């Protein structure tokens, strides 16, 4: 009998899912003991959902608007994770706050990647191009990306791994965003590999 010790992963996405794709291919290429078995999105149509369907992966569209209370919304999210026996949740450009009840049920098991060097340039409203604009406006010469655990506060969880990139004088927020995203695509798989080593 073959025992499958692979960790079962869910990705939460809202957009194109470029980090999702990077993780998916890195798991295969590195032979990691993990498998992405669920893609959950607050948008019924997005690049991440399409990619998941191409890979014959289970997809779920889950939005607060579908529920009459925040408790029912959190309950549906928890049920989806429990039904798929999820070990870790990886946020990949997920533009919604994970309900506190879900965070409490998966302590140190929900992971996010942030496009700056936390604890700087984090918190509510600090996502996407807003982050890179703030970095440039501050005059920083270094930025980067941070993989961290998710807790009840935005971008305050334990830092797993960070990686730096330069901020050039000629950078626009869009140019810096592209450089940081390229960094994210290697950092997130490295951080996942570290987490898997910590939780064999």
Description of the molecule:
The protein is of the alpha/beta class and 200 residues long. It has two domains: 7-106, Formyl transferase, N-terminal domain (Rossmann fold, 3-Layer(aba) Sandwich); 113-200, Formyl transferase, N-terminal domain (Rossmann fold, 3-Layer(aba) Sandwich), CATH 3.40.50.170. 38% of the residues lie in helices and 22% in strands.
What is the class of the largest domain in the CATH system? Alpha Beta
Count of helices? 6
What would you give as the CATH superfamily of the largest domain? Answer: Formyl transferase, N-terminal domain
Percent helix range? 25-40%
- For the biggest β-sheet, the strand order reads 3-2-1-4-5-6-7
Q: Do you know the CATH topology of the largest domain?
A: Rossmann fold
The largest pleated sheet is described as: 7 strands, mixed
CATH architecture of the largest domain: 3-Layer(aba) Sandwich
Mean pLDDT: 95
Q: What is the gyration radius calculated from CA atoms?
A: 17 Å
Shape: globular
Total strand segments = 7
Helix/strand order, N-terminal first: EHEHEHEHEHEEH
Low-confidence stretches: none
- What gap, in angstroms, lies between the N and C termini? 20 Å
Strand-residue fraction?
Answer: 15-25%
As for the number of domains, it is 2
What is the SS-derived class? alpha/beta
């Amino acid at each position: 009998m073959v025992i499958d010790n692979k960790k079962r992963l869910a990705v939460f996405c809202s957009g194109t899912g470029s980090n999702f794709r990077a993780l998916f291919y890195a798991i295969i290429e590195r032979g990691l003991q993990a498998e992405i078995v669920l893609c959950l999105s607050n948008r019924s149509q997005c690049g991440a959902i399409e990619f998941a369907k191409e890979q014959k992966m289970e997809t779920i569209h889950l939005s607060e608007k579908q529920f009459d209370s925040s408790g029912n919304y959190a309950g549906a999210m928890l049920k989806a994770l429990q039904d798929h026996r999820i070990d870790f949740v990886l946020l990949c450009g997920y533009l919604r706050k994970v309900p506190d009840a879900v965070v409490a049920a998966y302590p140190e098991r929900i992971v996010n990647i942030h496009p700056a060097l936390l604890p700087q340039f984090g918190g509510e409203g600090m996502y996407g191009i807003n982050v890179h604009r703030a970095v440039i406006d501050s005059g920083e010469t270094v930025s980067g990306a941070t993989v961290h655990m998710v807790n009840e506060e935005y971008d305050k969880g334990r830092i797993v791994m960070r990686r730096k990139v330069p901020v050039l004088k000629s950078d626009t927020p869009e140019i810096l965003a592209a450089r940081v995203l390229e960094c994210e695509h290697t950092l997130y798989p490295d951080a996942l590999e570290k987490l898997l080593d910590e939780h064999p």
